[in-house]
Amino acid sequence: MKVVIAIDSFKGCCTTSEAADAVERGLRYYRDDIQTVKVPIADGGEGTVDTLVKALKGKYIEVDVLDPLGRKIKTKYGILPGNIAVIEMAEASGLTLISREEYNPLTTTTYGTGQLIKDALDRKCSTIYVGLGGSATNDAGVGMAQALGVSFMDGNNQEIGFGGGELNKINSIDTTNLDNRLKDTEIILLSDVTNPLCGPNGASVVYGPQKGANTATIKLLDRNLRFFGEMVKRQFSIDVFKMPGSGAAGGLAAGFFIFCNAESYSGVERIIDLIDLERHLPNADIVITGEGRIDSQTVNGKVPVGVARKAKKYGIPVIAIVGSIGEGAESVYSHGVDGIVDIVSEPISLEKALDEGISLIEKTTERTMRIWDIGARKEFIKNFY
């Protein structure tokens, strides 16, 4: 029996590699002669750099940058064969870098992400992939652009400060010192977000609350993003409001579109192609995928559905092992996922579920395979006779 394991990380519990290892151990508890193929995978969010560096035998680069609150930290990105950089904005500008008490999209900045881009340019990378998941910011990528040489001047001809709360102070935008190397560099955004920059479905309204914004702050941030967009439209004749996905990462995507001529792609689809998942699928008996939580949003570019679509080309059954099942999860059935199994089988606290997550994945995998095997044997007997 051949089983392909292509599972995403369980946020706050385990990485992609740790989850895959747990599934493999669960398979061994069931049968020790199973052929397993573990394929590191991500969707542009947490784990993207590790996934691509491991799968494509790249290397890590350590860099000193500013975190979302402007403090100096050491972080990393990857360089793949062919001098291709892969960056997670969350490594420099993500929520995991600050405490919950520090969440404040009025002041958090994407400056550190711009520093990562600059370091990749210094290393002569001609293609740069940027994963946009996990942002702590709502500054429309202004901080990123500042790190790359753009000046955003207020009415007193002074550079504005960091954060989404500063955007309404912009009086002029000067791109004279924008890093000239960007003209010859392909910037590819990896994202599953299609939200516009502002409005009811925009960056501030939809994602602001998880970054610490209350109702009043959300309204202010949304107004500031609109102000910024109108400023860009007047000065550069670029209508960022019409660009799908410009609201990703608190509008960081908009900043990349405007100043770096970036293009955006489905993160999971691009990563699946880069790692060539498809070559592992012929002759597979089952594919095991999954993520921390499966719900109605999973069909919008998340790992389980991306994996399932490839597996269905070969008629391979797909099981998703997940941390929790949310509203609308059944929508994945029409996208190639055959079954969903929750690792929590009894009432349990979130803290305990996270602490014991790896063990729960192992046990759930074993139980799932034993049930699946009953069906497989019945089908064999039916066909045999």
TrEMBL record:
SUPFAM superfamilies: Glycerate kinase I. GO terms for molecular function: glycerate kinase activity. GO terms for biological process: organic acid phosphorylation. Keywords: Kinase, Transferase. Coiled coil: none annotated. It holds the Pfam family Gly_kinase. InterPro entries: Glyc_kinase_flavodox-like_fold, Glycerate_kinase, Glycerate_kinase_RE-like, Glycerate_kinase_sf. PANTHER family: GLYCERATE KINASE (PTHR21599:SF0). Belongs to the glycerate kinase type-1 family. This is Glycerate kinase. It comes from Halalkalibacter wakoensis JCM 9140.
